[in-house]
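Subject: Interface between my chains keeps coming out wrong

I've been trying for a while to get a sensible model of this assembly. When I model each chain on its own everything looks fine, but I need the whole thing in one frame so I can look at the contacts. Pasting all components below, labels as-is. Any help appreciated, I'm running out of ideas.
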Amino acid sequence: MAIGMGIIGAGAIGNIHADAAIRAGLRVVGAWDVRPERGSALATRVGGKPAASIDELLAMPEVDAVAIAVPNDMHCECACRALAARKHVLLEKPMALDTAQCDLVLGAHRASGCVLQIGFVCRGTPAALAVKKFIDAGRFGNIHHIKAAIYRRRGIPGLGGWFTQKKHAGGGSLIDLGVHVLDLALHLAGHPRVRRASGAVWSVFGSPIDQYRFTEMWAGPPKLDGVFDVEDGATALLRCDGGLTIELNATWAANIPDNALRDGICVWGEKAGAHFEVFGKSASIATEEEGVLVDIAPKFNADDPIRQAWDTQYAQFIAAVSRGEAEHATGQSGRDLQAAIDAIYRSERENQEVAV
Ligand SMILES: NC(=O)c1ccc[n+]([C@@H]2O[C@H](COP(=O)([O-])OP(=O)(O)OC[C@H]3O[C@@H](n4cnc5c(N)ncnc54)[C@H](O)[C@@H]3O)[C@@H](O)[C@H]2O)c1
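Reply #2:
Try treating it as a single job with all components included. I did that and got this:
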């Protein structure tokens, strides 16, 4: 019988989880949201049962696994409760608010015998998979530098709502968007330990809320009586084992002329380098063959890179459940990433490079 999936948090991403789970052949058997009308709308849409509480959802015998898609401050508690109830967990990014909470989740995971996979969906785009194959085959040689960038001209999500409140989100563009590209950089490089971080964050556009100019909003219009107390831009230089440096940029909002900067990942290796946009449809590899500089343009099906990345994520989750252990996007990788994020925020507070 296909895995029975429960959805915890029936907002934008909870609904995307439900659809991706169904495409992957799973049964979405239940949903819960703190706003009951959202949980029931999702459950009804996919033929599952709405649960009146998280306990009720976790007590349903037909729920084998859960996708957790609630605000970041609820990740740790929901994951620990689900693992204690012996449910496999696909937990949205960021893993939690900070490293200490990640450790609680890892402790619950160890005690559970269940799968814990983190929602680092960007690892599964066709471009990321193609470049990773070249790297793993040794075609890049030693990687000495990665630029990991995600730029939005005006992309503050749900300005005034939970995304822009430190107590709910843990931070702003760094913990929201930066985690995606930093995870991807570390994943491509084979997860070296990040040893030192020098970072800076700033808040320029989010406040006052009624002065925010934008053309479109993720997660609804600004809440004029809401709170914005996080960064809307961040940068960092990370030093890793083996000499790798990672330059990170993560902005929700900046006065960046259109097309002036391409976001994505730029990998610099001794034998080859690559660039691809995070959800782009192509990748470029620059290398040298027979003493000649050569460009490689991998060909792959990238009709809908976002959907394909979600499908990859669910295929990996199903494989993990059948194996009994996550191979991709493990809890440990989420925890190590969070330690780097925490260090970047600490570096900003201390105004100096810090140890991770
Ligand atoms: N993988 C990705 O690409 C991606 C993209 C966007 C968001 N996310 C992550 O997904 C998670 C959810 O983001 P979203 O965009 O769906 O947000 P959202 O606001 O659309 O949905 C969150 C849902 O959680 C519910 N909720 C709010 N407070 C709650 C609480 N205290 N307890 C339980 N439920 C509560 C809300 O009612 C809402 O339905 C976040 O952790 C975010 O970082 C991931």
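Reply #3:
Confirming on my end. Residues 4-122+310-327 form a domain with the Rossmann fold fold (CATH 3.40.50.720).
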